[in-house]
């Protein structure tokens, strides 16, 4: 049974139209041949893979960069506070999204220990890192050896006890004064992280 070129072209056009319509219905972009891109291979994704991080401004996040619940990159605006006035220990446990907050708040002390008080290689408890800052993170005046507080696993020195309260109101600005551009706190997560549960 012979088919004319016109009949073949008409059938091909019908197939391409159906494929293109299906791709729109499925919410997937179609290429010029009417084929769907598989998840993670859209044009946008390919552009993100070409991202030139050398031209981006690096942010500094003075805490955990991986969410302890989802193991995804954190959002610096999502966190739970840890406050232990008796032991003079404070901190923020950063999370990937606000959806993790409820679970995190149930065991915030345990999470703080896991994130900031545990050696990542051995899994054993570790002491807070003494930053040995010579200047107060609040006033910029000389810090005293015996006026300290632990914040995010760091032992910080202050000029006076009242400086600690001021520091806790805006800890990132204080830490940026005494630890500017510290490599271990450079935070540049992938442009597109998993965060599937968001």
* Mean of pLDDT: 79
- Structural class by sheet pairing and helices: alpha/beta
Radius of gyration: 26 Å
Terminus-to-terminus distance: 56 Å
What is the structure about, briefly put?
The chain has 6 helices and 7 strands; from the N terminus they run ααβββααβββααβ. The protein is an alpha/beta fold and 198 residues long.
List keywords for this structure.
single chain; alpha/beta; 198 residues; two-stranded antiparallel sheet; elongated; 2 domains
What does this structure look like?
- The protein has helices spanning 5-25, 43-49, 101-106, 108-116, 161-169, 171-178; strands spanning 59-60, 75-84, 89-95, 129-130, 148-151, 154-157, 186-187.
- The protein is of the alpha/beta class and 198 residues long.
- It has 2 domains: 5-48, no CATH class; 55-187, no CATH class.
- The strands form 2 sheets. Strands 2-3-5-6-4 form a 5-stranded mixed β-sheet, sandwiched between helices.
- It starts with a helix and ends in an 11-residue tail after the last strand.
List the helices and strands and how they pair.
Elements: H1 5-25, H2 43-49, E1 59-60, E2 75-84, E3 89-95, H3 101-106, H4 108-116, E4 129-130, E5 148-151, E6 154-157, H5 161-169, H6 171-178, E7 186-187
Parallel strand pairs: 3-5, 4-6
Antiparallel strand pairs: 1-7, 2-3, 5-6
